[in-house]
Amino acid sequence: MTDKNQKTPQDMLEREAREEALAPLLDNGWRLDEGRDALSKRFEFKNFVEAFGWMTRAAIWAEKWNHHPEWSNVYNRVDVTLTSHDAGGLTQRDVKLARKMDALNS
Ligand SMILES: C[C@H](O)[C@H](O)[C@H]1CNC2=NC(N)=NC(=O)C2=N1
């Protein structure tokens, strides 16, 4: 998150809300990217069909919420990075999508 007093989207997280929102995600396999304000996680599945099935379900929510992950898939593995491009960093939209991705994987 930037400290410069620029115009930022309304859902940019303030420090306290941000820490509260991020703590459970960081406990659940998400990490803060170094070098950019983004959350990343590697999801692993039994096989490609499970991985791609999960991606399909996540994609439907991403499209519904107009908030899209950066992700790549190799066989049973999906590497996800979440950040809000318009904000240049994390917003509530990333937290919401991260929680949904975890819920779809439980
Ligand atoms: C025009 C459209 O609303 C925007 O490009 C949306 C689409 N999905 C998006 N996804 C993410 N992660 N960040 C954005 O800023 C974003 N913007």
UniProtKB/TrEMBL annotation:
Species in which this protein is naturally found: Brevirhabdus pacifica
Protein's GO biological process: tetrahydrobiopterin biosynthetic process
HAMAP family (UniProt xref): Pterin_4_alpha
Lyase found in the keyword field: yes
Protein's name in the database: Putative pterin-4-alpha-carbinolamine dehydratase
GO terms of molecular function: 4-alpha-hydroxytetrahydrobiopterin dehydratase activity
Enzymatic reactions: (4aS,6R)-4a-hydroxy-L-erythro-5,6,7,8-tetrahydrobiopterin = (6R)-L-erythro-6,7-dihydrobiopterin + H2O
EC number: 4.2.1.96
Family: Belongs to the pterin-4-alpha-carbinolamine dehydratase family.
Entries under InterPro entries matching the protein: PCD_sf, Pterin_deHydtase
Pfam families: Pterin_4a (PF01329)
